Amino acid sequence: MTFPNRCARAWEAMPWVLQGTAAPQDNEWLTQHLAQCEACRAEFEQQSRLRLALSLPADVGLDPNAGLDRLMARLDEPEPAEPPQSVRTSPWLSRALAAAVLVQALGIGILGAKLWWENPAPAYRTLSQDTAPAVRGAIHVVPDAAMKLADWDALLRGLGLQVVDGPNDVGAYTVVATRGSAQDTLKRLRATQGIRLAEPVDARP
């Protein structure tokens, strides 16, 4: 019986153990593994014989025919049976997973569309764009630079304001009230902390 991960570790430890430089715990571990793994035990014996042959004096005669005979005998051995193939995933399970992924993707798309519909992005303009025509009842609003985006969105929602232009080069937005009068909205904006300026668009100096 082989243990792929453990066998790899055993092959790495064999040279150190054979040279006597392995740590005691590695030596003990390899001994226990060899007692359970026939393939590693055969490899360890082969490496042991190879190391012994390399350590023999040069004048010791070697029998190449014996080695050739052993090699031919191993080639004549029947091939080992192929390991059983891994269990394939059933077609039903694959279809179920694909359906789950599709449903999740559709859900994310619907949620994104809903969020976009409820929270449309403000219309930003660059300095090179022409100024949009003034909307009746529109108000120029300059929020403080330190105001968080979440606070700005909450203010727009609370006062029923819709951004129609901006920010411009001074950080001013043009907003219109979707409920209530523009005059009342202007007063509430001027009383809100974090609003540096709130003036009607059609105001005359």
Structure characterization notes:
With 205 residues, the chain is an alpha+beta fold. Helices cover 53% and strands 10% of the residues. It contains 7 helices and 4 strands; from the N terminus they run H-H-H-H-H-E-H-E-E-H-E. It has helices spanning 4-19, 24-36, 38-55, 64-76, 91-118, 149-159, 182-190, and strands at residues 139-143, 161-165, 173-177, 195-200. Strands 2-3-1-4 form a 4-stranded antiparallel beta sheet, with helices on one face.
Order of helices and strands: HHHHHEHEEHE
Low-confidence stretches: none
Helix content: 40-55%
Q: How many strand elements? A: 4
Across the major sheet, the strand order is: 2-3-1-4
- Continuous helix count: 7
What class do helices, strands and sheet pairing give? alpha+beta
Which band does the percent of strand residues land in? Answer: 5-15%
* Overall outline: elongated
Task: Specify the biggest β-sheet.
Answer: 4 strands, antiparallel
